[in-house]
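Progress narrative, work stream C.
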Amino acid sequence: MQAYAAKLIELIESKAESIAKQWAADVMKHDRTPSYHSLPNDMVIEQGTDFYRLFRRMSLAENSYDEAKTFSWKYAEDFYRKKIPLHEAIYALMLMRRHLWLYAEFQGTFVTALEKQQAVESLNRTILLFDYVSYQVIEKYQELIIGSVERRLGAIKTLMMTGPIGGKGSTYKVGLMTIFLLVACILTYHYHATLKTEDIFTHLFYIPVILASIWWGKKGIFAAIFLGVLILTSHALFLTGIPISGDVVRAIMFVVIGGVIGWLMEGIKKLEELY
């Protein structure tokens, strides 16, 4: 079997560029790999050539799985940066394998019945190596996606007080929100009862409204409801001579903004859990 495996390896290595050109011509017009259609022809050929030349090292290496990473990680990174969808990148690998064997058949590498029978063992080895590469590409692609999501959610996750804070995060959130709401009560009493004005101090209330929605999602709307009820009740008690319509609008806006942000945060959390 080793003689026939070596025969296939030598063919692939010596004709790497020729096989890669046939693969590139196919993948750049195939209807299942549309993202490849706009890529530079030389770049696609170079990628195919790199893989076919790596085939010998993968085949002869003591640890073929580790040797495959030389190609598969770079392959995943290159096409992730070019925004090639994962399913297209994997299908392109399938075409690589197909063109390898089509070329071997076309060249009459395995002629006799015995050679063809023993070539099946070489085929099994080839399939195994391609399986290694496919698995590693998917693994690396997923790692890159998760890293991208983590970076893009970095600021939000900081506001969410997740990560390093760990289990104490919930206690800190409750403590901070209690302080915010207590300050809101003091400000409301001061402006309504002492100064007898409905000044724009209520704009500060958007801070606890937004933070509550970020921290607790849809449940955070209760902070908005509390603040809305607070200013309406206080207005009714201390500002009897001033129309309440302004505070009604403010209370409604607290609830609307809290609800919208809470709904968005629920979606972001589900997306993060998915990745």
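Work stream C, second folded protein:
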Amino acid sequence: MAAIWKGSVAFGLVNIPVELRTAVRADHISFRLLHQEDHSPVKYERVSQADGEPIPWNEIVKGYEYEKGKFVIMSDDDFKAAAIEGSKSIDILDFVKEEEIDPRYFETPYYLVPGKGAEKSYALLREAIRKTGAVGIGKIIIRQTQHLAAIKVIGDALVLEIMRFSNELVDADEYTFPSRSGVRPQELEMAEQLIENLASPFDPARYTDDYRANLMKLIKAKMKGKKVKLEEPAEETAETGVLDLMSRLRASLDQGSGKKTAKTKRAAPAKKGARSTKRKTA
């Protein structure tokens, strides 16, 4: 994939030439809007709300609505005046501990790929960040827009993650959340047991987009002129009366214990095989 940005990472007096390359890819299914009668594509037009007439691009300006129906018109010169001079350097301003950063700040990850001849300095910065457990915080300008960014280590890669600025986060005080005073010790103990029963190593391959899979089944069937019957989701029973939290927790624990026992039974033959191999070797 082509580089999104080319420049360098600067920390202290050290400059490391790097290229910014995507670390994630969109995997959504795209659809076009069509006219039902002849399946011709439908296009959007820029229409005036005043008279319903189409407006050409050369008559369109940008405005900031400071009150309902009142605008400040911004020209191209205004945007040029406000623009920050483009920089080809990511200056690391601070090194902080990752656990100190609210996860809501992180947005989009990119790989930082070393430029030609920068392998040694790249590896040096990577291992220093890994050993100290730090995250480099700096700023980067991509396509005339300034972003806050974090540089961290994942495996052998330095990963730059675009971050949100503090004013982009919604303060939790705007909402009301329940206090812990209403949680009974017995309920908490059972909830902790349930979490322990469901605990397992994180395997992202286990979690798939079922909706996308269903759409692709339908699309492929329609392409062949066939019909496909998808499995219908189980109906949810309506709640009646006050929720009995303790009985739900007990039922969940019983269900979890059954799954855990099944896993243990499936794993048992492997252990038996391992013992017999040991005896043969002896």
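Residues 183-198+245-273 form one domain. No further action is required on this item.
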